[in-house]
Design a protein that fits this description.
It is built from seven helices and four strands, in the order αααααββααββ. By secondary structure, the chain is of the alpha+beta class. It has two domains: 86 residues, no CATH class; 55 residues, CRO Repressor. It has a four-stranded antiparallel β-sheet. Strand 1 and strand 2 form a beta hairpin. Belongs to the UPF0702 family. It is a multi-pass membrane protein. Keywords: Cell membrane, Membrane, Transmembrane, Transmembrane helix.
Length: 150
């Protein structure tokens, strides 16, 4: 039972930590982010297994984590508030060509990140060429270009 409690506590702790870091940081990992993630996984291993490295304990921990994940998925489908907290909602960062700086700050997104997405997806060179930029639930940025007058 101790392994189940440890696994549940670590799962909830990591969920809160990753939720507070923001969508964008999880969508675009830098080499530093990857190193940090590897260190976190190594640090949580001892907490998950404790002193019991048996196969049975490992199975119990994995079963607990998968069960919690399935439960959380079911809760997000059943309750909109849980879904919004876990997955967030799409967030408009640029509207009708106007950069919404407060939303950028809240989402921890730089204008350069928006411009990078605009270059990659639409071949745009400037922020004023963007009609809408939306931070999606996945952490990616969708770009809708302004109409070109012909």
């Amino acid at each position: 039972m101790d392994a189940v409690i440890r696994a549940a506590a670590i799962y909830i702790f990591l969920l809160v930590i990753f939720r507070t870091t923001g969508r964008r940081s999880l969508a675009q990992m830098t080499p530093f982010d990857l190193v940090l993630l590897l260190i976190i996984s190594e640090a949580t291993q001892q907490g998950l297994l404790g002193d019991d490295f048996s196969v049975t304990n490992s199975f119990l921990v994995v079963l607990t984590l998968v069960s919690l994940n399935l439960l959380l998925t079911a809760l997000t489908h059943r309750f909109d508030a849980v879904d919004r907290w876990i997955n967030d909602v799409p967030l408009v960062l640029i509207e009708d060509g106007e950069v919404l700086h407060e939303r950028l700050r809240k989402a921890r997104v730089d204008p350069e990140d928006v411009l990078e997405a605009a270059r990659e997806s639409q071949g745009l060179e400037r922020l004023d060429q963007i009609k809408y930029a939306v931070l999606e639930r996945s952490g990616g940025i969708s770009i809708i270009p302004r109409r070109q007058d012909v």
